[in-house]
Design goal:
Largest sheet: 10 strands, mixed
Strand content: 35-45%
CATH superfamily of the largest domain: Acid Proteases
Radius of gyration: 18 Å
Order of helices and strands: EEEEHEEEEEHEHEEHEEEEEEEEEEEHEE
Number of domains: 2
Distance between the termini: 31 Å
CATH topology of the largest domain: Cathepsin D, subunit A, domain 1
């Protein structure tokens, strides 16, 4: 079993100016690897990128950036950080310009150029980049997990038509920690604590060490095997567990028996004790609205 949350946490100021849109731009995404894989174009060239709420800034493959003629600052090299046990690849500041989705064009935004062969191998196809916080920070997006569709909205009110008929709705302020949106009061059995929402993670729930100190959490773990995660530093293995208590947030709950993994990071009840990924959101059959402009996050369930 493989889980591949993708993190490249080398921070640069996020600057992103989008051209005005007329109505929602909606495209299907590839969820075959439990990632939100989107077909885009940059300067007219077809590329494939994933949408990742846990990455800042965005990322583009180095060779692809060179062939597109993007300006790459090789004098300011850094090292990718994130998952994996190896050395991080070299990263170079750049800007992605000329990006379009279904013909809708977007303004240039900050990115890092790096060699992405390892991540491409983990996904089983060529990965040209990652659309992260530097792309998302001025946008409103709706991710429809059951339909595998991504919509980029001109205004949050356009979500009304796209969520018509959904019987359950839960909203919360969109607050971020290290660019990750935070779900407050996530339930793990009888305990509640904040968790981060990571659309770059193919997993369900990754527990930081602080989560293990929550009441009843450690006792609810039953070892289930090993998970291999692939990130900016290659592969890293961790134990997986069956969590023998219900988990959820707001009105949404999954029964006991969800597979979770553990992280070596400490985490904190003041910031986040765990990281939840695409597998959990898909299992809940949610439509997820991330309104970065209005600083609101909404979840829709029981949709037709």
């Amino acid at each position: 079993m493989k889980s591949s949350p993708i993190l490249l946490l080398v921070m640069f100021p996020a600057v992103c100016a989008s051209a005005p849109l007329r109505g929602p731009t909606t495209t299907s995404f590839d969820f075959s690897k439990t990632t939100i894989g989107v077909d885009i174009t940059v300067k007219g060239r077809p590329l494939h990128m994933i949408l990742d709420t846990g990455v800042d800034p965005s990322v583009i493959d180095l060779a692809t950036a060179e062939s597109l003629g993007l300006k790459i600052d090789r004098g300011d090299a850094g090292e990718a950080s994130g998952f994996g046990d190896g050395k991080g690849a070299a990263v170079f500041p750049t800007e992605i310009e000329g990006l379009a989705i279904k013909g809708a064009r977007f303004g240039k935004f900050e990115a890092l150029a790096t060699e992405m062969g390892g991540l491409s191998g983990a996904l089983g196809r060529k990965l040209d980049g990652v659309l992260g916080y530097s792309f998302l920070s001025d946008k409103t997006v709706l991710i429809d997990y059951p339909a595998s569709k991504l919509s980029i909205l001109s205004r949050a009110s356009e979500a009304t038509a796209l969520t018509k008929g959904c019987a359950t709705r839960w909203t919360t302020p969109l607050r971020t920690v290290d660019s990750f949106p935070i779900i407050p009061d996530f339930r793990m059995g009888d305990a509640k604590a904040p968790v981060s929402l990571d659309t770059g993670s193919t997993g369900s729930i990754g527990l930081f060490q602080s989560a293990l100190d929550l009441p009843g959490a450690r006792d609810a773990l039953a070892e289930a095997g090993t998970i291999t995660r692939t990130g900016a530093r290659g592969e890293a293995k961790s134990k997986s567990y069956s969590f023998n208590a219900p988990v959820g947030f707001g009105p949404f709950t999954l029964p006991a028996g969800q597979i979770v993994s553990t992280y070596s990071e400490a985490g904190s009840t003041d910031t986040r004790v765990a990281n939840v990924g695409n597998k959990l959101l898909a299992a809940m059959k949610l439509r997820l609205l991330l309104d970065y402009r209005g600083k609101t996050m909404a979840f829709y369930g029981d949709c037709p």
